[in-house]
Amino acid sequence: MTGSNLPFAFEVLKTHGRARAGIFHTPHGSIPTPVFAPVGTQATVKAVPPRELHEIGASLVLSNTYHLHLRPGDELVREMGGLHTFMAWDGPILTDSGGFQVFSLAKISKIDADGVTFRSHIDGSIHRFTPEISMRIQENLGADIIMAFDQCPVPTDRGIVEGAVERTIAWARRCRDAHADDSVQALFGINQGGIFDDLRARSAKALLDLDCPGYAIGGLAVGESKPEMYRTLDFTLPLLPDNKPRYLMGVGAADDLAEAIVRGIDIFDCVLPTRIARHGSALTPDGVVNMRKLQHAHDDRPVDPECDCYGCRTFSRAYLRHLVKANELLGHTLLSVHNIRFLIRHVERMRQAIFDETLDDYVSAFLQRFLQTA
Amino acid sequence: MTGSNLPFAFEVLKTHGRARAGIFHTPHGSIPTPVFAPVGTQATVKAVPPRELHEIGASLVLSNTYHLHLRPGDELVREMGGLHTFMAWDGPILTDSGGFQVFSLAKISKIDADGVTFRSHIDGSIHRFTPEISMRIQENLGADIIMAFDQCPVPTDRGIVEGAVERTIAWARRCRDAHADDSVQALFGINQGGIFDDLRARSAKALLDLDCPGYAIGGLAVGESKPEMYRTLDFTLPLLPDNKPRYLMGVGAADDLAEAIVRGIDIFDCVLPTRIARHGSALTPDGVVNMRKLQHAHDDRPVDPECDCYGCRTFSRAYLRHLVKANELLGHTLLSVHNIRFLIRHVERMRQAIFDETLDDYVSAFLQRFLQTA
C-alpha cells in the first residue's frame, strides 16, 4: 500500500476497520497520518510563532492562495525564497487553490467556464483566477502539497452542485495539464458533489483518471448537518484509492475529526482552534470552555489539566480569564497554541489507537465526554 | 558602597564618571544595573510570554498598581499566590504606586490631603487611593520593589509642582509608616519637583530622612524638553545617596537611556518598546524604523541585522512588513520582543562599557548613529 510518486510516497502502516495510520513523505519532511494541520491564512498561524508550532507537534501547515496572492503577492513570496523561507516554517506546507475563498470572501464579478473574475475583499481591486493561474500562484508560493482549483458550492442545492462538479472536473484536468511536475509539489484533486451520492461518485471517477498523489473531499462542513456529512464520507471514501492520502478540507471540530478518522480520513485543516481562541474559548476534554465566564475567576487549575502545552504547564484559568477579559494579546497566543495542541494530541492519540486496535474505545470515550452526553 | 537592607543589598561594582555598574539583590533574583524593565501593565508585557522575556535577558518587569487594582483586583492576585505566580514571572517585579495613572488615566472626582477619589477608566466605578491603600494594594500584589504613592504634576507649572512636592513628601512618610517590613518588599521614595531645582532639592532632602532602600525620580519625560530633563538629572542625582539604586520612572527612549546612564541612573522602565511595536515600528541602531514603509517590501535582511532576538534571527523585513500591513498578531509579538531586546542590549552594552571605561565612546557613537546626526 505505498504510493509511487516519490518524494511524495504515502505508506499505510496499519489499518483498523476503515481507519488508517500512515506516513506521507514530502520534500520538507514526513507527516505522520492522520494529521491535523493548523491554518496560516496570511503566511502565519495567527498569533503563533513557527517555533511554537514545532513545539506542539505540528507537522503540516496550511496557507491560503487567495490571501497571499492579494497580499503580499505570490511573486514577492517567490522572490523571498518561497513560503517556507518567507514564514520560516521548514516543515511541510499545503496551499489551497483559492477556489473556496473566491466564492466565500471575494465579491464575484464574473464566473465562466474558464475561471472567475472577482474583487479583492481588501481593496476592491479586480483579479482573475483560472486553473492555470491558481497553479502558477501555488508554484510561486512553493508549498509541498497544492490543490486543484475548484468550485465549492452550497452542498444541498442539487442544481448548483451539479454544475460545480462538472466545472471542478474540467478545472482539475486543466490543473493537471498546467502542473507538469509532481516530484516538487504534489497536486491533489478535490472531490465535490455536496450531499449527493451520484455526484460524489461522478466526481471521484473523473479524478481517479488523473491519478493524483492524493485526494481531498471538499464541500463538507459548509452548511449540511453532521449526520449528512458523516453519511457522505461513508459513501465517498470507498470510492477513493486506498494507497493515496485522503484530505477532508476545512474540518476541525474535535468530534468531526474522530468521526472522520474512523471513516478513513488522513489529513485535516481548520481555522477553528485559532479562531475560537481569539474569541476567548478553549478546547478541553470536557468540551469548549468560554474563558470569559466568572466561574474561572478564582480557578488556579490550568485551562486543561491534561494538556502539555506551555500555557497549561504555566498559567491558571484565573490568569487566562484575566487576559481574555482585559483583551491582552498574550491570551490569543496562549489559547491558540493550546487549542491547536489539543487537536494535534487528539489526532496523535487516535493514530496510536489505530496501531493498538483500540480506536473505537478511544472515540466513544472521547465523544461521550467532549459532547457531554454522559 | 553596599546598601544595608538585606535581602535588598545594592552593590556598586564600578563607577565611570557619574555612571555606575552594579547589582541589586532582591528575593526573586539579582538585577544587574543599569537595567531596563519592560512594562507589563495588566500583569503581562503586551504580546510577550514570560519565557521570551527570560530569553532576551529581561531581569526586572514593572506592573501597574492602578490597572491591577481595577482588574482583576489585587485581592484576587493575592489569592492566586501573588503577581509572580499569577503572571508566571519568577524574576524581580516592581509595581508603581498608582499615582501616575490616577492623575493621567482616571477621571478624578476629588483630590485632598488624604488621597484621591477617582472613577475607573474601564467602567466608571468610583475608587479611592490613599498612601495606605496604595501600600495595601502593592502588598497584595507582592512585587519585590514597591513605590510610594505620589502626585506627578505637569513639570513646568511651578505652583502645581510646589503643591505636588509637599503632598508627595507627606504621602511618602505615610507610606513609610504603613509599610513596616522592607525585608520582603523594598519601598522606594519618589523625588518630584518638575524642572525646579529648589523643589527637587526640597523633595530629595525630605526623602533622605526616610532612608529608603532606593529612590526614584518621577515627573520627567512628561512634557518638558530633553535638555530640561537632562539638566534636572544633572542637578538632582548628586542629591541622592550613592549607595542606593536610582530609578528614572517612565523613560525608555534609547537616547534618553544613554544620557541618563551617563548621569548615574540605575533603573528604567517604559512602555515605549511594546507600544511602538504595536504601531509597526522597530528600534534599530539607525533609529526608529516604520515597518509599514514600501522600502521594506522586498528586503530580505532582518529588521536589525545586529540583533540576536528570535525575530531578527528568523524573519526578513519583507515578512515583518507583511505581518504589520496584514495586521497579524505575530507582528506585534515579534516587534515587541525585538524592541525590548534592543533596549536591554543597549543597556547591557553600556554596563559593559562602564567596566571597560569606554562609556563615552559608546554613547557618542550610539547617539550619532541612532539620531542620524552624522
Characterization of the model:
Two copies of one chain form a homodimer. In chain A, strands 4-14-13-12-11-10-6-5 form an eight-stranded parallel sheet. Helix content of chain A is about 40%, strand content about 20%. The two termini of chain A are about 40 Å apart. Chain A has about 375 residues and is α/β, with parallel strands linked by helices. In chain A, helix 7 packs parallel to helix 8, helix 10 runs antiparallel to helix 15 and helix 14 runs antiparallel to helix 15. The longest helix of chain A has 28 residues. Chain A is built from 15 helices and 16 strands. Chains A and B meet through helix 13 and helix 14 of A and helix 13 and helix 14 of B.
Keywords:
19% strand; 3-stranded antiparallel sheet; 374 residues; globular; 16 strands; homodimer; alpha/beta
Describe this structure in a few short sentences:
The structure is a homodimer of 374-residue chains. Chain A is built from 15 helices and 16 strands.
Secondary structure: elements and pairs:
2 copies of one chain form a homodimer.
Chain A: E1 10-16, E2 19-26, E3 29-33, E4 35-38, H1 50-55, E5 61-63, H2 65-70, H3 74-79, H4 83-87, E6 93-95, H5 99-104, E7 107-111, E8 116-119, E9 126-129, H6 131-141, E10 145-147, H7 158-178, E11 186-191, H8 197-208, E12 215-217, H9 226-236, E13 246-248, H10 254-262, E14 267-270, H11 272-278, E15 281-284, E16 287-290, H12 310-314, H13 317-325, H14 329-356, H15 359-370
Parallel strand pairs in A: 4-14, 5-6, 6-10, 10-11, 11-12, 12-13, 13-14
Antiparallel strand pairs in A: 1-2, 2-3, 7-8, 8-9, 15-16
Helix pairs in contact in A: 6-7, 7-8, 10-14, 10-15, 11-14, 13-14, 14-15
